[in-house]
Amino acid sequence: MKPEPGTDTATAWQGGWLRTARHSPSPNHGPRPAGALIDLIVIHSISLPPGVYGGPEVEQLFTNRLDWDAHPYFDQIRGMEVSSHFFIRRDGELVQFVDADARAWHAGRSAWRGRENCNDDSIGIELEGLEGLSFEAAQYRALQDLCTQLAQRYPIAHIAGHEHIAPGRKQDPGPGFDWAQLQQGLRWAHACFPDGTGSTAEAARGAGPATPPTA
């Protein structure tokens, strides 16, 4: 189940910055709309160049330091100004680019749970990987811990992939991402996840609370 309301987060967070993450501030962010309810986690996947892991390019992209001429693929994204709140490398290293209280530029044109513009009220998490391929055990462990930390600070009630909030436009994290593993690890309510992504066995047993709890 999700953390109980009132969990002490003072030692985990400094404002909207998670202390256990490596901080690499991005200029690509802005304020959230007044009264925004931060209740959605969006999972993405990214690698630069596509399928190449371990380099500095993703971090450079999110901090506007990417050399557009360093690889032919970069012409396709030249001048792009984007960010996510968090990035999880293949070895599980956690990098934070944007204060989680602020609005990162990760979702683009999107809609979920009856609301448009998911950047307004979501936390974006990028996994180092290529859509359609698998992810590492260390990444699932880091993601599970991060989701738990986020649920202690924000009223998280939903978690979805970029492919769910922007269907037809985005395909990440793709079929290689194991949603059932994440649900089983978090033990959040089946209703927190997109239809067809969670563990049917866990859902049948009623794992997690009947309705998504708030932090």
How would you summarize the topology of this molecule?
Layout: E1 13-14, E2 17-18, E3 22-23, E4 29-30, E5 40-46, H1 57-62, E6 86-88, E7 94-96, E8 103-104, E9 111-112, E10 115-116, E11 122-128, H2 137-153, E12 158-161, H3 162-165, H4 179-186, H5 200-205
Parallel strand pairs: 3-7, 5-11, 5-12, 6-11
Antiparallel strand pairs: 1-2, 4-8, 6-7, 9-10
Question: Which terms summarize this structure?
Answer:
alpha/beta, 19% helix, 215 residues, six-stranded mixed beta sheet, globular, two-stranded antiparallel ribbon, 5 helices, Lysozyme-like, disordered C terminus, 12 strands
Walkthrough of the structure:
With 215 residues, this protein is of the alpha/beta class. It has a single domain (19-28, 37-177), classed as Lysozyme-like, CATH 3.40.80.10. The chain is 19% helix and 18% strand. It contains five helices and twelve strands. It has helices at residues 57-62, 137-153, 162-165, 179-186, 200-205, and strands spanning 13-14, 17-18, 22-23, 29-30, 40-46, 86-88, 94-96, 103-104, 111-112, 115-116, 122-128, 158-161. The strands form four sheets. It has a six-stranded mixed beta sheet. It is globular and about 45 Å long. The model is unreliable at 1-8 and 200-215 (pLDDT under 50).
Q: What would you call the structural class?
A: alpha/beta
Kindly state the percentage of residues in helix: 10-25%
- Full CATH superfamily name: Peptidoglycan recognition protein-like
In angstroms, what is the radius of gyration? 16 Å
